[in-house]
Design goal:
This protein has 172 residues and is mostly helical. It has one domain (5-171): Orthogonal Bundle (Endonuclease III, domain 1). The chain is 56% helix and 6% strand. The protein contains ten helices and two strands. The chain has a two-stranded parallel ribbon with strand order 1-2. Helix 2 runs antiparallel to helix 10 (154-163). The longest helix has 16 residues, at 84-99. It is globular and about 50 Å long.
Length: 172
Protein backbone atom coordinates (compact mmCIF):
# COMPACT_ATOMS: atom_id res chain seq x y z
CA UNK A 1 0.00 0.00 0.00
CA UNK A 2 1.50 3.33 -1.08
CA UNK A 3 1.28 6.26 1.29
CA UNK A 4 1.51 9.89 0.29
CA UNK A 5 4.16 11.46 2.53
CA UNK A 6 2.55 14.88 2.03
CA UNK A 7 -0.50 13.65 3.95
CA UNK A 8 1.68 12.87 6.96
CA UNK A 9 3.57 16.15 6.70
CA UNK A 10 0.31 18.10 6.46
CA UNK A 11 -1.12 16.24 9.47
CA UNK A 12 2.05 16.94 11.46
CA UNK A 13 1.88 20.65 10.55
CA UNK A 14 -1.74 20.72 11.69
CA UNK A 15 -0.82 19.20 15.07
CA UNK A 16 2.63 20.69 15.67
CA UNK A 17 2.84 23.30 18.39
CA UNK A 18 -0.84 23.20 19.32
CA UNK A 19 -1.58 22.41 22.92
CA UNK A 20 -2.92 18.88 23.11
CA UNK A 21 -4.07 16.61 25.90
CA UNK A 22 -5.13 13.79 23.57
CA UNK A 23 -3.24 10.59 24.42
CA UNK A 24 -3.32 9.27 20.85
CA UNK A 25 -1.94 12.54 19.51
CA UNK A 26 0.75 12.60 22.22
CA UNK A 27 1.75 9.01 21.36
CA UNK A 28 1.78 9.98 17.66
CA UNK A 29 4.05 12.97 18.37
CA UNK A 30 6.31 10.76 20.51
CA UNK A 31 6.50 8.22 17.67
CA UNK A 32 7.44 10.89 15.12
CA UNK A 33 10.02 12.35 17.55
CA UNK A 34 11.63 8.93 18.05
CA UNK A 35 11.81 8.22 14.32
CA UNK A 36 13.02 11.76 13.63
CA UNK A 37 16.29 11.12 15.50
CA UNK A 38 18.98 11.04 12.83
CA UNK A 39 16.50 11.91 10.08
CA UNK A 40 14.72 15.06 8.99
CA UNK A 41 11.34 15.88 10.51
CA UNK A 42 9.88 15.75 6.99
CA UNK A 43 10.92 12.11 6.54
CA UNK A 44 9.51 11.09 9.94
CA UNK A 45 6.31 13.15 9.62
CA UNK A 46 5.81 11.87 6.08
CA UNK A 47 5.47 8.38 7.52
CA UNK A 48 2.52 9.21 9.81
CA UNK A 49 0.03 7.25 7.64
CA UNK A 50 2.36 4.21 7.80
CA UNK A 51 2.93 4.65 11.54
CA UNK A 52 -0.84 4.88 12.04
CA UNK A 53 -1.29 1.60 10.18
CA UNK A 54 1.49 -0.37 11.88
CA UNK A 55 1.08 1.09 15.38
CA UNK A 56 -2.65 0.37 15.82
CA UNK A 57 -3.82 3.92 15.05
CA UNK A 58 -1.55 5.14 17.89
CA UNK A 59 -3.40 3.14 20.53
CA UNK A 60 -0.52 2.61 22.96
CA UNK A 61 -2.47 0.00 24.93
CA UNK A 62 -2.66 -2.19 21.81
CA UNK A 63 0.95 -1.50 20.83
CA UNK A 64 2.06 -2.55 24.34
CA UNK A 65 0.88 -6.06 23.45
CA UNK A 66 3.09 -6.29 20.36
CA UNK A 67 5.84 -8.92 20.29
CA UNK A 68 8.21 -10.43 17.72
CA UNK A 69 5.49 -11.41 15.18
CA UNK A 70 4.18 -7.83 15.09
CA UNK A 71 7.74 -6.46 14.90
CA UNK A 72 8.43 -8.73 11.92
CA UNK A 73 5.17 -7.65 10.24
CA UNK A 74 6.07 -3.98 10.76
CA UNK A 75 9.51 -4.57 9.24
CA UNK A 76 7.83 -6.10 6.16
CA UNK A 77 5.81 -2.96 5.44
CA UNK A 78 7.37 -1.52 2.29
CA UNK A 79 6.86 2.14 3.26
CA UNK A 80 8.06 1.72 6.86
CA UNK A 81 11.34 3.14 8.17
CA UNK A 82 13.10 -0.16 8.78
CA UNK A 83 14.93 0.55 11.99
CA UNK A 84 14.27 -2.32 14.41
CA UNK A 85 15.73 -0.38 17.37
CA UNK A 86 13.27 2.47 16.84
CA UNK A 87 10.35 0.11 16.25
CA UNK A 88 11.23 -1.73 19.47
CA UNK A 89 11.49 1.68 21.20
CA UNK A 90 7.90 2.52 20.20
CA UNK A 91 6.68 -0.80 21.60
CA UNK A 92 8.77 -0.29 24.74
CA UNK A 93 7.49 3.28 25.11
CA UNK A 94 3.89 2.10 24.92
CA UNK A 95 4.61 -0.29 27.78
CA UNK A 96 6.33 2.49 29.73
CA UNK A 97 3.18 4.63 29.38
CA UNK A 98 1.10 1.85 30.93
CA UNK A 99 3.64 1.44 33.76
CA UNK A 100 3.18 5.13 34.68
CA UNK A 101 0.03 4.06 36.53
CA UNK A 102 -1.01 4.39 39.30
CA UNK A 103 1.06 7.55 39.82
CA UNK A 104 -0.13 9.03 36.51
CA UNK A 105 -3.44 8.39 34.76
CA UNK A 106 -1.93 8.39 31.27
CA UNK A 107 0.68 9.97 28.99
CA UNK A 108 -1.13 13.29 29.03
CA UNK A 109 -1.16 13.41 32.83
CA UNK A 110 2.53 12.47 32.93
CA UNK A 111 3.83 14.96 30.34
CA UNK A 112 1.76 17.90 31.55
CA UNK A 113 2.59 17.35 35.24
CA UNK A 114 6.10 18.72 34.60
CA UNK A 115 4.58 22.16 33.97
CA UNK A 116 1.70 21.82 36.43
CA UNK A 117 -0.74 21.60 33.49
CA UNK A 118 0.42 25.00 32.18
CA UNK A 119 2.17 25.93 28.95
CA UNK A 120 5.87 26.58 29.61
CA UNK A 121 7.17 29.60 27.70
CA UNK A 122 10.74 29.42 26.42
CA UNK A 123 12.36 32.71 25.41
CA UNK A 124 14.65 32.26 22.44
CA UNK A 125 16.83 34.42 20.25
CA UNK A 126 15.45 34.97 16.73
CA UNK A 127 16.38 32.24 14.22
CA UNK A 128 17.33 29.69 16.89
CA UNK A 129 16.85 26.08 15.79
CA UNK A 130 13.63 24.41 16.85
CA UNK A 131 15.50 21.68 18.69
CA UNK A 132 17.38 24.12 20.93
CA UNK A 133 17.44 22.33 24.24
CA UNK A 134 15.92 23.65 27.43
CA UNK A 135 16.26 22.74 31.08
CA UNK A 136 12.70 21.39 30.93
CA UNK A 137 13.38 19.14 27.93
CA UNK A 138 16.55 17.80 29.55
CA UNK A 139 14.78 17.15 32.86
CA UNK A 140 11.81 15.40 31.21
CA UNK A 141 14.17 13.27 29.07
CA UNK A 142 16.01 12.04 32.18
CA UNK A 143 12.72 11.26 33.91
CA UNK A 144 11.33 9.44 30.88
CA UNK A 145 14.46 7.25 30.75
CA UNK A 146 13.99 6.42 34.46
CA UNK A 147 10.46 5.29 33.58
CA UNK A 148 11.74 2.96 30.83
CA UNK A 149 11.18 5.10 27.73
CA UNK A 150 13.67 4.56 24.87
CA UNK A 151 15.14 6.93 22.26
CA UNK A 152 14.17 9.92 24.40
CA UNK A 153 17.26 12.10 24.56
CA UNK A 154 17.00 15.82 25.38
CA UNK A 155 16.64 16.90 21.73
CA UNK A 156 13.93 14.32 20.98
CA UNK A 157 11.99 15.23 24.12
CA UNK A 158 12.40 18.96 23.45
CA UNK A 159 10.78 18.46 20.03
CA UNK A 160 8.02 16.35 21.57
CA UNK A 161 7.23 19.03 24.17
CA UNK A 162 7.17 21.77 21.52
CA UNK A 163 5.08 19.62 19.17
CA UNK A 164 2.55 18.94 21.96
CA UNK A 165 2.32 22.63 22.85
CA UNK A 166 3.71 22.03 26.33
CA UNK A 167 6.61 24.33 25.47
CA UNK A 168 5.81 27.48 23.52
CA UNK A 169 8.77 29.30 21.97
CA UNK A 170 8.70 33.06 22.28
CA UNK A 171 11.24 35.09 20.35
CA UNK A 172 12.98 37.78 22.40
Amino acid sequence: MQHDSNIGINEYHRLFGHETHDNRVLFELLTVAVFQAGLSWQVAAGKIPVFRQVFADFDYQKVAGFDEPELEAIMQQPEMIKNPRKIRAIISNSRAIIRLAPKFADLNDYLWHFTEQQVWVMSIEPDQPLNQQSSLGTFVAKDMKKHGFKFVGPTTVQLLLIAAGIIQRLEK
